[in-house]
Amino acid sequence: MKTSTIPTETIISDLMPRKFGRAGMIWTGSLILVCLLGAFAYYRQLDRGLIVTNMGDYVSWGIYISNFVFFVAISLVGSLITAVLRLANVHWATPLTRIAEIIAVSAIVLASLIIIVDMGRPERLFNLFINGRIQSPIMWDVIVITTYFFISLLLLYFPLLPDLKIMIGNKQKDHKWLQKLYRFMGSFWRGSRIQFKISDRAINMLCITIIPVAFSIHTVTSWLFATTYRPGWDSTNFGAYFISGAFLVGAGGVVVAMYVMRKAYKLEKYITQLHFDRMGKVLVMLALLYLYFNVNEYLVPAFKMKKPEESHLTNLFTGEFALMFWFAIMVGMIIPIMILLFKGGRKPLPMFIAGIMVVVGAWFKRYLIVTPTLLHPFLPMSDAPEAHLHYFPSWEEWAIAIGSLAGALLIITFFVRIFPIIPIHETIVEQNEQHEK
Amino acid sequence: MKNKYLLLFFFLFAQLGVALAQEDSTQEATEEVTEEAAADEKPELSLQLGFHTLNNKLPYLMLSSKLRKDNSFQVITGAKVKVYFKEETDEGLIGEAVTDSRGVAKLVLPARMKAAWDSSTTYPFVAVAAETRDWVETRSEIEITKAKILMDTTQTEEGKRAISVQVLQFDGTEWTPAPDVELKVGVRRLSSLLPVGEEETYTTDSAGMVIAEFGRDSLPTADKKGNLVLAVKVEDNDMFGNMEVEMAAPWGVYTHTPAVASFGKRTLWATSDRAPLWLLFMAAFIIVAVWSVIIYLIYLIFRLKKLGNKSTVEVGQEAPVFAELRES
Fold first, then answer.
1. Which residues in chain A have their CB less than 8 angstroms from residue B308's CB?
2. How far apart are CA A369 and CA A388, in angstroms?
3. Which of A324, B24, B30, B280 lies 20 to 30 angstroms, CA to CA, from B40?
4. Which of A:104-133 have CB within 8 Å of B?
5. Parallel, antiparallel, or unpaired for β B252-254 and B219-221?
6. What is the ipTM score, two decimals?
7. Which residue of A has its CA nearest to B311?
8. pLDDT values of chain A reduced to their tens digit, one per residue, 437 residues
9. Which of B246, B320, B196 has the alpha carbon at shortest distance from A192?
């Protein structure tokens, strides 16, 4: 790799967190504004109740739950990039591990928050823990999300310890409060062999543990739907379908983050063309896999066209949701596959565009999984009001949903400001190892 | 030249006058349209007043309110409606009803009206909804004739079970038969009235009588004596409103329905304290296994912390990277 010739001091100075520039300030300020708008919309929802949303007796899970599924999906990338590739001894992914982990942590935090937003009476949240039924997949989701959050946090923390020592030693440019934070988090790290041995063992244990937990988190989320007997959800394929989609959107998110970080912090020496090329191959494989599950998910029921499925499927293929459905399929899968199959498409800019397409397509795909099914209940209400037959989120729902997306980006932004987004110590060690070879 | 400017001035002045006149007339026209629209926009409330008695006892009134808006009727919640008996005075005021979320309100006649009630042969009621922002003052009136239903069990000429019904009305001096009254005769089931025979409805003859043959065989009932609740119902009659009488008859078959086999047992659909054991064990095993790892890892953080406080001699050498960094 190109990093083999970079002096250690240069690596440290290149990868140290930096103060926001003008663009960074504008970016952060805009995110804060969007979050504040979301907070105001949520205040209105708290004050007036869920009546401010356009959810009703038919669509009781609207944009909030679509957003929740999206966040859970994107959070899976932590286990893919960090755990799967680390256990497989794939070293090229080292500069991407922290990006993947912070995406995972921020997404899982917002997934938990958006569930609370969806509750009409959030002050009764504790009842879920006191009176929860272990028989309910919703309870499994609560347990598994909490578990995944802690594991992701630990997986972010352990590899950060050696970098904390480096940052404590590099005082010149930092604020005092940052130094205090670094000391609080990692002043005990001396970098001794015993400490490394323990830390490596911990990271290995985490990598092994996080894979089944990550699979559980999204499988259980898919079961929230698949355990009900409704058109569009009643599928034995749903767990695998959700997992493959989650890996795809997560990898897409990492590609977008890679490109932005590389540009913003001039990290071309560390996130190279090689990383884009390899991530491109991972992304195209995942997109093909997800496309395969989509074919199974839609074509097989369409071939049989059972009566209850018929209105749901025709609504997706040619009806009310056709535009969004074909947008999600084309933009979320087919066009990125066509871009990434070619070597020229796996260069940074086309990769960035493909990544954006995957993430945007995935968001709409989650909306399509949740909403159209709810509009087709098995036992329709007689004389259901017109408003129940269609759903378009209210401005409060949009503001909260977009605010939550901004919230996730804000967590990542602050993390990048405070901690090195590419592991400094691991980069130095890998460079030394290669040099010795 | 001067004349030219004068002409131009007059021309402009005349144009201004025309424009102002047009504006005034447009404004007047707009005001007229707005007034008309305002009058159009404020419709009458659709008030339905219903009179009900059960077993010829204390009557009550049901009120429903709807408003025509955007070419459809919308239920009005919280509409305040005053209902009067006989006269629209404080004495005749039965009460002020407020419609609920279904747009419905119920009013029971107060005890102070017993004397007026007993001495009357017809009962006029008036409902008045005062004018609000959304509707103009609306009234609804009904007049009910005093009536009662007598029912009993009997047998047909073929010796089959039957129900005899007689509807009587009070003409001021005595009870006389009420002919041509449409009514339902049925058995009270969980949510509706099951007709006793083939006929959906019956009509009283000149003697105000109906004989309804009981054609239901071995109807199951939870009553150990086999009692069924028979009911006669007059609905939305112009003269008598809504009347209903019930009586019990041992014409059913006591059927013991055992509780659902899984009731009270450990199932996936039971309450949280009755979760299946296999599920509890499985969930507990997974939770304990994963959280043991998390707790162990947190313990490792504390161990790392402890090691950090010891001297280099005790914890071993620094990793080469840090040694190199320190030297540099």
1. 187-190, 195
2. 18
3. B24
4. 131-133
5. parallel
6. 0.87
7. A190
8. 444 467 888 888 888 888 888 999 999 999 999 999 999 999 999 999 999 999 988 888 899 999 999 999 999 887 777 888 888 888 888 889 999 999 999 999 999 999 999 988 899 888 888 888 999 888 888 899 999 999 999 999 999 999 998 888 776 666 788 888 999 998 898 888 889 999 999 999 999 999 999 999 889 999 999 988 888 898 888 999 999 999 999 999 999 999 999 999 899 989 999 999 999 999 999 999 999 999 999 999 999 988 888 888 999 999 889 999 999 999 999 999 999 999 999 999 999 999 999 999 999 999 999 999 998 887 767 777 777 888 999 999 999 999 999 999 999 999 999 999 999 998 888 887 776 66
9. B320
Q: Any chain B CB within 8 A of the CB of A138?
A: no
Q: Does B316 touch chain A (CB under 8 A)?
A: yes
Please give the Cα distance from A160 to A97 (Å, whole number): 11
Name which of A169, A193, A201 is nearest B325 (Cβ-Cβ): A169
One DSSP character per residue, A218-276 reads HHHHHHHHHTS--TTT--TTHHHHHHHHHHHHHHHHHHHHHHHHHHHHT-TTTS-HHHH
Going by their DSSP bridges, the two strands B241-249 and B45-54 should be labelled as parallel
CA distance A326 to B79: 48
Q: How many CB atoms lie within 10 A of CB A374?
A: 21
